Amino acid sequence: MTVTWGMDLDLTMDNDVRKRCIESKKAAVLSETKAPFNIVATNSQWSSMCGYFPEEALGCSPKDLLQGELTDSNKAKRFAEQLTADGHARTTLVNYSKFGRAFVHTISSELVMDTKNGASCARPANRPSKPHRCQFLA
Questions:
Q1: Is the pLDDT of residue 102 over 90?
Q2: Phi and psi, residue 38, nearest 5°
Q3: pTM of the full structure
């Protein structure tokens, strides 16, 4: 499972949030909460899964980096809409590594509020989950 954090720009410099993303045991990406959801941090598990070094992914949209022919763009759009509307979302998508290899993974995210300044951010959904499994497609 891949976890995502979505951050308002006010929070993207929060070192604690970045540290939690980078140190996560699961593939994790920190992104802005507004479209195009540009990436502001990733961890080594995400880089291993997707093939992008952090410096290649920073400032890019996950959609631009990972989506391809077999990606259900409507499902991806519903994920983003549900996260915004309900404060949490989970879906399974076919995406692509930097090298064009298709893979299936589950993406899960949950919005939280920063009580200091009222800005919203997203963190991994705090639900039990199966160990991360990534199925590569031939």
A1: yes
A2: -55, 140
A3: 0.72
